[in-house]
Amino acid sequence: MIFTYRDDLDLEKIADSGQCFRWTMQDDGICRIIAGSELLHIRRKNVSQLEADCSQEKFEAFWSRYFDFQEKYGKIRKRIDPEQDPFLYQAALYGQGIRILRQDPWEMLISFIISQRKSIPAIRTAIENLCRAAGTVIETQTVTETVYAFPEPEQLAALTAQQLGECGLGYRTEYVRRAAKAAADGIIDFDRMQQMDDAALEQSLKCIYGVGTKVANCTELFGFHRLDSFPKDVWINRVLETEYPHGYPFAAYEPYNGVMQQYMFYYYRGQSGR
């Protein structure tokens, strides 16, 4: 199908923004996206149109929400005053096109547990290994390669510690094993978490073995779509130290501090040459 969309949407920038680990930009300009058990191939056709290999019904039922199309990111960027905050203004121009995807909380929890002290390519590899080890094959008529869904908690919990370790998880093996068992047993209740306010959600996530503040904040932002969550990693800490020595104005950007964090992360990482 072909659809028209004129708000911020840059597939390459989103793929490289550090929020999604199962996006692949292919040589022909097509972006392959695996989200849970869903598969999509999408490319930009022209300035205002994109082409995707799914029906309009499927796009409206799943992918429109996934891309967070109801939120206007152009309006969010206009909240930044170029005179009051020239750094963030420049970062937002550089990162224009990034959106906060509405991803599955379970997948994001495991993905960001794995992300601790790993580079983005290493995270992608470990997650793909995990999907191959425990995920269900996604049936498709258009792809010749075998594509795997992200494992359900029960599928992941069925793997042994050795099998998990062989996925390249390192010391995170036990974190993933325990999280999978807790989710499979209903101890981690994502439906209940969805009803919590931001502070309670963060505390609940930090009760999970192996989850600290950064992983909790990433899961809040990218899994529960709490757009005011502001994860801090080495890149963001450098931004805060160098660009905001007197303090970052969180109140000025509520409830979109997480969007601003993505602009900062993408810009600072890009300018440093990684």
Task: Name the strands of the widest sheet in spatial order.
Answer: 1-5-4-3-2
Architecture of the domain at 105-223, according to CATH?
A: Orthogonal Bundle
Distance between the termini: 36 Å
Question: What is the H/E order?
Answer: EHEEEEHHHHHHHHHHHHHH
- Per DSSP, the total helix count is 15
- Look at the structure and give the mean pLDDT: 95
Q: Going by CATH, what is the homologous superfamily of the domain at 105-223? A: Hypothetical protein, domain 2
| Helix-and-strand structural type | alpha+beta
Form type: globular
CATH topology of the domain at 105-223: the name is Endonuclease III, domain 1
Tally of strands: 5
Main β-sheet description:
5 strands, antiparallel
Spans where pLDDT lies below 50 across 5 or more residues: none
Descriptive key words:
274 residues, alpha+beta, TATA-Binding Protein, Endonuclease III, domain 1, five-stranded antiparallel sheet, 15 helices, 5 strands, globular
Q: Can you walk through the features of this model?
A:
With 274 residues, the chain is α+β, with helices and mostly antiparallel strands. Among the domains are: 2-71, 2-Layer Sandwich (TATA-Binding Protein); 105-223, Orthogonal Bundle (Endonuclease III, domain 1), CATH 1.10.340. 48% of the residues lie in helices and 8% in strands. The chain has a 5-stranded antiparallel sheet.
